[in-house]
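User: Is it possible to get a 3D structure for a protein together with its bound compound? The compound here is 2'-O-acetyl adenosine-5-diphosphoribose. I've pasted both below.
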Amino acid sequence: MAIVELAEALRSANRVCVLTGAGMSAESGVPTFRDAQTGLWAKYDPLELATPEAFAANPERVWDWYQYRRELVLRADPNDGHRALAELAGLVSDLTIVTQNVDGLHRRAGSTNVVEFHGNLFVDRCFRSGSVVEGMQPGPLPHCPGCGAPIRPGVVWFGEAIPEDALDRAFAAAGGCDAFVSIGTAAEVYPAAGLIDRARRNNAVVAEINPQLTGTAAGGIEIAATAVEALVPLVNRLRAPRTLN
Ligand code: OAD
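Assistant: Yes, that's possible. Here is the predicted structure of the complex:
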């Protein structure tokens, strides 16, 4: 059974890297991007909402959309899958979670070694300088107290570079791990999806947890289940003392 196989791979790994995507938070009620019907990109055009050009053209519209997403996430709670991953840190020898999610739910569930590869919805930055600006109030588009430029959400948009620190930490974790688990990502957006190839080149065991498997772990361990369905029994198994059989 694939969960047993993954538990064994995690037990014997010196370093583990987990990559999460929007599917990780789906069971918290946060919509994914690419699922047909329910995904955000089925309803909205990413080019009009998730690029620096879109923000420059209509900052209020983009800001309001991110405000809507913030509110949605504030109403959501980490799910049992997030909590299982937080517990996993104490059950394997060295765990790094790289998340493409900007919702902060891994940290709210208690995970500490988290690389927020695409930034965080709750960080505000000056659109001109990129500096983090504290103390902005929820509501209509605010402006930078220093220079008057509009404030933007601290997420990474299409066409923007991943912050260097996040990129370095993520590729070091993927390139140095013995077991790599991809959870709830369509693995279509680079460079995040490139982490899987990096781990494979390092001969890591590669696993995927996704109700609609993408094939990125073909030849490795494939678990066709939701994050909660897979991670809860996985962690239960790792928590249980080893038996002889
Ligand atoms: P996607 O929406 O592209 O993919 C979500 C994946 O989660 C799909 O493969 C689903 O099958 C899977 N899924 C759905 N429900 C699940 C569940 N309950 N448990 C596990 N898996 C489930 O989201 P990402 O791959 O995260 O970037 O998208 C990557 C990036 O593209 C995002 O960070 C965002 C987006 O556009 C930006 O906004 C820059």
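The radius of gyration is 19 Å. The domain at 31-75+125-155 is CATH 3.30.1600.10 (SIR2/SIRT2 'Small Domain').
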